[in-house]
Design a protein that fits this description.
about 30% helix; alpha+beta; 3-stranded mixed beta sheet; 8 helices
Length: about 375
């Protein structure tokens, strides 16, 4: 089932009544007893032996009927957007004119450096391969030349294989020249690789299907801009659309599951992308990283003595709850709310969570909370 917030309060849909296997077996036995009494005159208290042939047939049919009900339920849910997944979701997408975004190739800027200045130009052919130490290959996407009297030239390169494995490689990581070039001393990436994404996930595709009808308008509604921003790259995870200056549309966004700030290159790429999508001709789209509002976590919690046998599990659950809170808090425009952390820690099984940080704070619609430090202390057992 989709985890997008628009569907959070929808009721669970079941076609067959969510009947369990045990209930199916019981109903089959009741029907057998009913017809056996009507046709053969046997008492309703008559019980089939465990290995009786009739009992084995009943169990076989009950299992088969229950499997058929599960299959029917699954296909019914597959036809509804909130519960559709995988290939079934792929078949819903064309109904609104979209498809699942494929895996993306990461790009990066490489700097080629000569051993010494040359009297003639040194050519770096398009398609020149450079790799990392663990075998992630990049190819230059255009021909470049180091002119006479110069030592370096910067060239854009693209990962050979699509996927998130080639994304977020730090400067200096891509430094092994695969295709030799005369007089070349070294090559290295001077920027972090960006744009490497896996195939779009179900939650992202579900949200774009939900927003897609807004794109039919050319009047520039907010959710149309949200739809187009989501369609730019599958790793754009959060965005806020602001238009307070006439025809200038500001898009503040975060990237990847960790919700990092976008780079200047990614902001420029998003702006270039919006030049090609359908929107009002007079709209100027500007892309920005949101401003960060710092906060910290200082938490001490205890465990009730009645839960002593589960102490290790509770500690693991508390740590997981804190990490979930950090991700929950990392949303553009979401106020820093320590009551949410207390709630999650209590739900994890802790007793008396005590916070000295974070302090509740307002976060504007173009800001996002940033964790600077996190201290989680287990204070020991306490009486209930």
């Amino acid at each position: 089932m989709s985890q997008i917030e628009e569907f959070a309060n929808l009721p669970t849909v079941t076609i067959t009544g969510a009947e369990t296997l045990e209930e199916t077996i019981a109903q089959c036995r009741e029907l057998y007893a009913k017809f056996d009494k009507e046709l053969n005159g046997n008492s309703s208290e008559y019980t089939l032996a465990r290995c009786n042939v009739a009992n084995l047939v009943l169990l076989t049919m009950a299992h088969r009927f229950h499997h058929q009900m599960e299959y029917t339920d699954a296909w019914g849910r597959a036809e509804l957007l909130p519960t559709s997944t995988g290939a079934a979701l792929d078949n819903l997408a064309p109904l609104v004119g979209i498809g699942r975004l494929p895996a993306g190739h990461a790009t990066v800027v490489l700097r080629f450096t000569l051993a010494a200045e040359r009297h003639g130009a040194v050519t770096i052919p398009a398609g020149t391969r450079v790799r990392t130490g663990d075998g992630i290959y990049f190819r230059t996407i255009e021909l470049a030349e180091i002119m006479p009297g110069e030592l370096t030239v910067d060239v854009t390169a693209q990962a050979e294989e699509a996927g998130a494995r080639s994304d977020s490689l730090p400067p200096g990581e891509i430094n092994i020249l695969v295709d030799p070039i005369p007089y070349m001393k070294e090559v290295t990436n001077i920027s972090e690789s960006t744009g490497g994404t896996d195939v779009e996930g179900d939650d992202s595709l579900t949200r774009r299907i939900y927003l897609a009808p807004s794109a039919f308008s050319v009047a520039g509604p907010q959710d149309a801009y949200e739809y187009y921003a989501s369609s730019w790259r599958a790793d754009l995870t959060d965005k806020k659309i602001i238009c307070e200056e006439g025809y200038t549309v500001h898009i503040f966004f975060l990237m990847e599951d960790e919700r990092r700030l976008p780079t200047e290159e990614e902001c420029a790429e998003l702006e270039r992308y919006f030049k090609d999508v359908r929107k009002p001709m007079g709209d100027l789209v500007k892309a920005h990283a949101p401003e960060e509002v710092e906060y910290s976590i200082a938490l001490t919690y205890y465990i009730a003595s009645s839960n002593a046998k589960s102490a290790t599990t509770i500690q693991e659950n508390v740590n997981a709850a804190v990490q979930d809170y950090i991700l929950w808090q990392r949303k553009i425009g979401r106020d820093i709310d320590n009551s949410e952390l207390i709630k999650r820690v209590r739900q994890a099984g802790a007793k008396r969570p005590t916070l000295t940080a974070p302090v509740n704070a307002r976060v504007s619609s173009i800001q996002v909370a940033k964790l600077t430090s996190c201290s989680v202390t287990y204070g020991g057992m306490e009486d209930d």
